[in-house]
Amino acid sequence: MKGSRGGCSLIIILCVVFAAIVSLSMAHNDNTAIPIRRSRGCVAYNPIDRCWRCDRHWAKNRKRLANCAKGFGHGTYGGKKGKIYIVKDSSDENVISPKPGTLRHAVLLPEPLWIIFSGNMNIRLTQELIFMSHKTIDGRGSEIHVSGGAGFMIQFVHNVIIHGLHMYDIVEGSGGMIRSKHDHVGIRGRSDGDAISIFRSSQIWVDHCSFASSYDGLIDIVAASTNVTISNCHFVRHDKALLFGASDKTPEDKILKVTLAYNHFGKGLTQRLPAVRFGFVHVVNNDYTEWQSYAIGGSDGATIISQGNRFMAANGACKEVTKREIVPESVWCKWTWRSEGDLLLNGAYFRQSGNPHWAKAYKGYPLIPALPAKNVPNLTKLAGASLKCRRGVAC
Ligand SMILES: *[C@@H]1O[C@H](CO)[C@@H](O)[C@H](O)[C@H]1NC(C)=O
Ligand SMILES: *[C@@H]1O[C@H](CO)[C@@H](O)[C@H](O)[C@H]1NC(C)=O
């Protein structure tokens, strides 16, 4: 009896020790960028990628991506509840009655759709591409280049995922008669020449896209749009890249909430990475390797929380990360712009202002927990649309 009781308590002690070791090692995994290998050859570094990338059967389980949005765009499921639509035709000739099989035909349908492509394509949009709600554009498995024509107009809708596209050399659309809903055709003015324009829309997630040199901006988020996440994207060669809040006269943009996570701001960028008016922007674990004028700017009381980013100032460029527009320090000193755990290199500096105890005021906000900034090169290593996913192999 005695002996067996002793054996039992030994087992209990061993169990307790084992449980402690397991929970310690799990905590370790949650708090660092140590990659989880689930499929041979696949290393997904960041929590968004880890949600889907190492699944060898990603092509059969495409809609799994719909559960992976984090930050303010969390819960964006795009076309998860709809059918798969395969774009087989890269043309965009008819903007009033788009041909079935084209991207324009797909995004204008009223029902939820998960839109994929039959092969590699270069799509030159004749006019801005206007979306209906509940769509996913999923470029995985194909090289999809949207360039040389107009850009995307996400207006008055919600719940859209854009994943795996190359967008560059976007120009103004001439305007004219364009279908803007499945049941409405109307006359539209010139489009701005933004790669993606998000206008009075919410629940938008842009992931693993590559953006470069367009006529106006790369991504605009305006007119009381909110709940947007831009993650794992790669930005290069552009002057005014990201504009959140278009004007000093639109206080409705106070509602704007955007997460920027795991993006790489690379070669040939000048400013607006992003520029923010009124709203709240969480900038977490991004890699900034070039800006000429400034990285993060803003005005009108915008709130900017910068955590775990790597800011590497370029030689011969401005070293200050931040820029406040036009008002005296007595005004901007009240704007909450905080830098926590950022890695500031080559003379880069972030001028902070506002409330250091900001977190108390924003309890319940879906802020992606920052990983250490030294892991940013790994976290953003595969940013952009060049994952080259192949069927049957983890991306
Ligand atoms: C934005 O998301 C929050 C939850 O995070 C929700 O309460 C709010 O209604 C959303 N707003 C819009 C316009 O979708
Ligand atoms: C990046 O990941 C590699 C392994 O994939 C690792 O050896 C390296 O230490 C990581 N670097 C950092 C800074 O975490």
UniProtKB/TrEMBL annotation:
It catalyses: Eliminative cleavage of (1->4)-alpha-D-galacturonan to give oligosaccharides with 4-deoxy-alpha-D-galact-4-enuronosyl groups at their non-reducing ends. Its EC number is 4.2.2.2. GO terms for molecular function: metal ion binding; pectate lyase activity. InterPro entries: AmbAllergen, Pec_lyase, Pectin_lyas_fold, Pectin_lyase_fold/virulence, PEL. Its cofactor is Ca(2+). Keywords: Calcium, Lyase, Metal-binding, Signal. Binds 1 Ca(2+) ion. Required for its activity. Residues 120-317 form the Pectate lyase domain. SUPFAM superfamilies: Pectin lyase-like (SSF51126). It comes from the Eukaryota. Residues 1-27 form the signal peptide. The keyword Nucleus does not apply. Pathway: Glycan metabolism; pectin degradation; 2-dehydro-3-deoxy-D-gluconate from pectin: step 2/5. The keyword Calcium applies. Belongs to the polysaccharide lyase 1 family. This is Pectate lyase.
